[in-house]
Amino acid sequence: METSVIEKSNGKIEVLPDLEALSLRAASIFVSASRDSIVTKKRFAVAISGGSTPRRLYMLLGSEAYRHRVDWPRVHLFWADERCVPKEDEESNFRTAFDALLSKVALPDKNIHRIKGEEAPDKAAGDYEEEIRRFFGESERPRFDLIMLGMGEDGHTASLFPGSKSLEETVRLAIPVYLEEPKKNRITLTLPVLNDADQILFLVTGPSKAAVLSEILGDGEKKKGFPAGLIRLAHGNITWLIDHEAAGKLGGLRSH
Ligand code: 6PG
């Protein structure tokens, strides 16, 4: 199965055969983005996501094949969102990254800017915002070099869900979000922070996401109903890495 690339006004869509090919491609994008940022800024500020899709990527970056390709002491790791659970919890996005990657690379503890999911949601969000402002400078608008995002079947990204008031936040950098179903709290970066990034990399796989993806990547207005469709970078570029199954309903888009 071949790989195809579709250029769009605000970025690029790469359709890859499967999760393995997608994860290898994401690993090479991570490596080159880290090198570019470290050459120009002496650091690489990256925010990662949770969920199942990026796990293979994290394993690759922590593997013998990749771990020496990244200058980890110059990497500053943040999260796009976190579940309000202790860091040892199975559901913790920190734990997902720790088990697959952080426990395998020479990333200094002081460079790991974790969302403290074990704290009360408001405090966790406030502390995380302070941490981001401290790192980027109080007066600066935080501009991540790279933010890696996933997308849910409902079109959510990070922990920004369809119809949620969190989508209207314009001042705070990180906010608590309460999910009615399954009655859980999360902390998420807000849209202005995501849209200020230099680069966004979406990783999306599986047939269950094809319908929403065709709306978001299509040219219709419906995309605005999906948080992932509200990612519009002010000055950066977006790359969508999607597998064949998730691309199943892109139809005409793929024939260009
Ligand atoms: C999280 C994520 C979330 C995730 C999507 C897709 O904490 O769960 O940040 O936004 O990216 O839900 O999840 P999957 O990769 O498991 O489909």
In total, the number of strands is 10
Tally of contiguous helical segments? 7
Largest sheet: 7 strands, mixed
The side-by-side strand order for the widest beta sheet comes to 1-2-10-9-6-3-4
Q: Specify Rg, calculated over alpha carbons.
A: 17 Å
Question: Which small-molecule species are bound to the chains here?
Answer: 6-phosphogluconic acid
Written account of the structure:
The chain is α/β, with parallel strands linked by helices and 256 residues long. The chain contains seven helices and ten strands. The protein has helices spanning 19-41, 55-61, 93-100, 121-136, 191-195, 210-217, 252-255; strands at 4-8, 11-16, 44-48, 75-79, 81-83, 146-149, 174-179, 184-189, 199-204, 237-243. Strands 1-2-10-9-6-3-4 form a seven-stranded mixed sheet, covered by helices on one side. A three-stranded antiparallel sheet has the order 5-8-7. α6 links the parallel β9 and β10 (237-243). The mean pLDDT is 94. The structure holds 6-phosphogluconic acid. 6-phosphogluconic acid (6PG) binds at residues 49-53, 80-81, 93, 150-152, 156-158.
What does the secondary structure layout of this molecule look like, with pairings?
Elements: E1 4-8, E2 11-16, H1 19-41, E3 44-48, H2 55-61, E4 75-79, E5 81-83, H3 93-100, H4 121-136, E6 146-149, E7 174-179, E8 184-189, H5 191-195, E9 199-204, H6 210-217, E10 237-243, H7 252-255
Parallel strand pairs: 2-10, 3-4, 3-6, 6-9, 9-10
Antiparallel strand pairs: 1-2, 5-8, 7-8
Helix pairs in contact: 1-2
